[in-house]
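name: query_chain
kind: protein
chains: 1
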Amino acid sequence: MIPLETAKKVLKEALRTGGDLAEIYVEDNTSLLLRLEDSKIENAVRGADRGVGIRVFFADLATYAYTDDLSEESLLQAARAAASAATGSNKSRSIDLTLQKSPLQFPILKPFDSLSLADKARMLNDADVAARAYSPLVKQVIGNYREERRRVWIFNSDGVQVEDDRNFVEMGSMVVAQKGDILERSYEGFGGQKGLELLDERNFVAKVQEIAEIAVRMLDARPSPAGEMTVVMCNGWGGVLFHEACGHQMEADFITKGSSAYAGRIGQQVASPLISAYDDGTIPGRRGSFRFDDEGTPSQRTVLIEKGVLKEYMWDLAEARRAGRQSTGNGRRQTYRHMPVPRMTNTYIGVGNYDPEEIIQATQKGVYIKQMAGGQAELANGDFVFSATEAYLIEDGKITAPLRGATVMGNGPTILKEIDMLGNDLAFDPGMGVCGKDNQGARTGVGQPTLRIPRVAVGGTA
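structure:
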């Protein structure tokens, strides 16, 4: 996107006032969004956005400037703006940039243009028809198709020169069912860092029929009981609980500020011995994967917890410099307009030994959470409240009646110590997760096996 010689000039200019590290982040993003509502395509939007962010480090201080003008003069002006935080001088230094290649392969078997715009819209229409045909109780169907190609190039004055090409496809639907005064909404979808081969692997029409079935079934749900009880969490999406209530506390900015329950606890027992947890940006096809993070650090698999013992945190470049550590490849940003911050990639709890049916059978009474919805987590201490869009009562070791209005409340680090059964059915979310932090959004992945929490507060209406 910018000539190599221009990159070298810009880096030298950024260091002119005494900076010790300068970085250029270049991004070119193209996208397509289709939205179906009321059985017709309401939105069809193509987008294109490109620009450059320039960051300069003065020891632990970092300054940032960005521009959407890729001309050499505009880039030099941005470099001067980032450098203006200091008034010193820096002798001209040689900057040698060498392109680094990643061994990671994220192949695109069917590019986005292998299917016409009309065919993509037809998928949404077909799903709408199928959902409404499932039951007369289905009153509304909303469908979304999104594709995005995000290309990035990163250079820094330590010689880093990398590039990455990230392609995402997402399809989702919300179905609203109504019986009398009762309304139920069910939302789900799937996505991945792939081409349109994802649509051959997953049947969107069948998925929307399944969503309609859930919405209609939940119309007959009974009010969820409230109080302390046993909760069995589903595999896959259930991992959002660990992500929000524990994972954020292992991100380096919370560690260096001392505001995390895990600060200073490397080598200590912080979870049940059943629990091993990982952050892995190298998994092919996952939303949180990349060849290099948004600072040019190669992606890696980081062991966070091993058999209950805390092993590592997630570091970006800025926090690693501050603490005298190495980045773990967790520097991520929403766009070139944002400075990177420590962020999770694909974070998950590893596999256990129990068949998921054994976990249910071992539970005399409790709640089975099959689908998680939105919620809130206090990132500093891990307190959380999450609601369930699909939950069921467990009675005498069997899943029985659907429940309405179930919420789960507690403290992530505490619950992590209390998990007493872990399934052998590790799965990841269907590929729709977006994480918010510092007013930035980032695609992330979560995962876990089925697991049991023996005592946790459940909120309901009964």
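note: Residues 117-134 form the longest helix (18 residues).
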